[in-house]
Design brief:
Number of domains: 3
Number of strands: 13
Number of helices: 9
CATH superfamily of the largest domain: Periplasmic binding protein-like II
Shape: elongated
CATH architecture of the largest domain: 3-Layer(aba) Sandwich
Order of helices and strands: HHHEEHEHEHEEEEEHEHEEEH
Helix content: 40-55%
Largest sheet: 5 strands, mixed
Length: about 325
């Protein structure tokens, strides 16, 4: 059976829905507005339904049938683009766009490795990134706006695949003159009576509250902030201690107060960094550039963080000396 439309017609229809008008779609596709209008007219004629409501001064928007077609058109166009890239990749080179989403506090540790080493290995992959909170990252993955995400494991939607690439033990950040600062490690009972500075975005907040077996309205919670530098600064000022997993290269806060990281021994307290991506639809595999990113992260992320930890240890020893 002959198809009732062409890929070009679907591409034009998609552009009109995305941009909200025929003129904007024409600019987006670098073609004449008359060509866009003709393609939409022919598409509506072929499918036998009105797909767009068109108003001169107000633009264009899809009808109910148009919304349904647009959802399916996105899948068809994506599949066609991937088929083209697969043929191009027969020379062994990965191609195409890849948007990386990174949980904000992980970004300094993840992005230099990916934008440097992965980009060097695969120069034809068009990398871009967004730094987001966990909920935004999951929403971006499920909508397709983000291809690959890096975050701590926390409330992952059923549509998202993920696997661990790094395990991080927790530590207690405290002022350098704190009575527990010279301990080789501490336990939760050691923190009884301590005020807590809570790094406030999930999953960091959830992990800390889980470790403390408490809730955010606990009177021990002195301050809540979504900023890691501010968390460190509040601790350095002596306003509380913080339970963290993020490494930091400096024994000083941004405002010059010395702080120390004391390992925290807590059962099942280690936190896992995960790489995440949208599950493929039935009979479809994820694009090869996504699977290669997963393979790269599995092989390189843990050694990369281990080098950061070692450099951090040496720098802190040098600063203290």
């Amino acid at each position: 059976m002959a198809l009732p439309f062409t890929l070009r017609q679907l591409e034009i229809f998609d552009a009109v829905v995305r941009t909200g008008s025929l003129s904007a779609a024409a600019r987006d596709l670098h073609t004449a507005q008359s060509s866009v209008s003709s393609a939409i007219d022919e598409l509506e004629k072929q499918v036998g339904q009105r797909l767009l409501v068109r108003r001169k001064a107000q633009g264009a928007w899809p009808t109910a049938a148009g919304r349904q077609l647009h959802r399916e058109a996105g899948i068809v166009l994506h599949t066609a683009q991937e088929a083209g890239r697969i043929l191009q990749e027969r020379d062994g080179q990965l191609r195409g766009p890849l948007t990386i989403g990174v949980y904000q506090t992980l970004a300094p540790y993840v992005l230099p490795l990916l934008l440097g080493d992965f980009a060097t290995e695969h120069p034809l992959v068009e990398l871009s990134f967004v730094e987001v909170q966990h909920a935004e990252l999951m929403a971006g993955l499920t909508s397709g706006a983000i291809d690959v995400g890096f975050t701590y494991l926390h409330e992952v939607p059923a549509e998202v695949d993920h696997q661990p690439i790094l395990e991080r033990p927790p530590y207690v950040l405290m002022p350098a003159d704190h009575p527990l600062a010279d301990r080789p490690s501490v336990t939760l009972p050691d923190l009884t009576g301590e005020k807590i500075i809570l790094l406030g975005d999930a999953p960091s907040k959830a992990n800390t509250l889980r470790d403390l077996d408490t809730t955010e309205d606990d009177e021990r919670i002195a301050w809540v902030t979504s900023s890691l530098p501010l968390t460190r600064a509040l601790v350095g000022k002596g306003l509380g201690v913080a339970i963290l997993v993020q490494p930091d290269a400096s024994p000083w806060t941004v405002d010059g107060h010395p702080v120390v990281e004391v390992p925290l021994h807590v059962e099942d307290g280690n936190v896992f960094v995960h790489i995440a991506w949208l599950k493929p639809q039935a009979r479809r595999r994820p694009p090869r550039r996504i699977t290669e990113m997963v393979t790269f992260a599995e092989a390189n992320f843990a050694p990369h963080i281990a080098r950061i930890d070692e450099d951090r240890r040496l720098r802190k020893a040098s600063d203290i000396a």
